Task: structure prediction
Amino acid sequence: MESSLPTIATGAAILGVLSHQRYFIHGEWDRHALTLLYLFIACPLALTVFLTVSVDSAPVRRLWLVLWASYTGGLLLSIAVYRTVLHRLCQFPGPVAARVTAFWSFKCSAVELQWHTRVQSLHETYGDFVRIKPREISINDPSAIKDIHSASTQCSKGPFYDLNYPHRSLQMARDKRFHSNRRRLWDRGLGTKAQVEYEPFIQEHCEELARQLGIRHSEPVEVTTWINWFAFDTMGRLVFGKSFDMLKASAYHPRMEQLEKVKKLGGLLHCAPWTLIMLRKLPLIRHKAREWIDWCGEQVEERRQRGLANMDLFHFLIQQSVGPTDQDLIYDSELAIVAGSDTTAATTSAILFLLAQNRECLTRLREEIVALRSTVPTPASHSSLAALPYLNGCINEGLRLYPAVMSGTQRQTGPNGTVIAGRSIPPDTLVSTPTYTLHRDPRNFTLPDNFIPERWSTRPELVLRREAFNPFSTGPYACAGKSIALMEMRMLLATLVGRFDFTFAPGYDTKTLSLASLGGHGVQDCFTTHVPPYEMVFTKVTAGLDMVARAANRMES
Ligand code: HEM
Result:
């Protein structure tokens, strides 16, 4: 048998190559990641241990190891050669390692959580079309946004969206029909009519945050945590009809704390989304994930018991659900809590940070808000806030500099390929538009790294390509909560800026607080953006008459 080992090894290696060429090269494997892990790693390892412990025959063990190593070697070699020199995406430039494996970015995307800046530097090096993974290209051209995301696009959601497979939330729905039916309900639950009902609840939470900051007047306060509590509490009320009451308790709800702890795993989504699909199914992790989903299920069930009297998102969603076993609805509740809180909280924390860094902008914003207060009752209605150009400019700048989803979202070209930004893209290619990079490209915005709220009102010449601004995405899969998010941010900023002055806590200087170095890491890309903790001191302001007069004069002129 010893003498025939080379022949056996060659046969196994050829089998490895053939299984790639005939089988694994076709279709999507992401959702089967756990099965493949068992098949190619766990089972062979178990067999090796079994042979070592139970079979007292060195030749049999050797034969098995040669078979396993040769087959796996043939398979991996075939994959590497195909991806490096034969793949349809070889025409696109990019790092050589990115051709071979998505894990080339593991350290940067999953450990350092800096994928957004890495993609930006890749575009600076390789141009507007970059192959960032074996099957994926990033396109840094504003016209690609319409080609990829609009209603008429040839592209659809990629395998990234199998994260909850076989269940699907609205966001994770790849089936267009299922998505558009579900989306109609969401649009009613978050639409203009519903927003009028939600306004008092949002204001209630703004008041509670202002009250809590008032109590801590002149003390250092960790801003991001308070903003997180505000965002989670508000979403609890808007989604399930009841606040999580974290602001009142000044403490995390245990479930939300759990969410915050696992948030950084989101970096894996930029490396290889299937690793998260797989991890979530592994026994220990599955148990933890199950606890969270069961809790979401309990919230849905409790909400269902309360009937249709309350106006909230689930008022609309439960009308069409099929009973307690509707798992998709449970995943929708997870989506509403996470997508609705995390994003708004990160953007608001970033805006407060930017305002504290740019004090002349803070003063101008306060003047605008105080001037409004002198003409309308306190607190101002959302519709009057929505008309304030400087407030909207500050929010747009926050969304531009630190979009809540910085690296864009994955789409896939159809079986015939498509043309994106004037270039022909092969079939079944994963494509994305890097929002952070587009927002900071000097071809799209003059002085792209500077916080200049005026570019959205009095200095439009600083916006060179408006279509590059895409924080909420566009088309049928665009953010369902855009209007609610803007409403929350306008109301909260008006409350805080109108009532408090704020500066960084002693010990910080504006240089070390630059978001690029905050906490040693700066802003992190966990699929949604993470703004690291920072401290500020809030001091109550009494709106002096002189300030109101100055603001009124400025508005008149
Ligand atoms: C600053 C705040 C926010 C930003 C920047 C933001 C951004 C985005 C982006 C970029 C997407 C597209 C994701 C994808 O294609 O995979 C998205 C989807 C979504 N967002 Fe938001 N979001 C924000 C706040 C909210 C809020 C407050 C809600 C309310 C519940 C919400 C609910 C959703 C939902 C349900 C989707 C999935 C839509 C679909 O697939 O049809 N978002 N958001």
Q: What stands out?
A: The radius of gyration is 26 Å. The domain at 116-553 is CATH 1.10.630.10 (Cytochrome p450). Residues 170-171, 183, 186, 335-336, 339-340, 343-344, 347, 403-405, 409, 471-473, 477, 479-481, 484-485 surround protoporphyrin IX containing FE (CB under 6 Å). The first helix runs from residue 5 to 24.
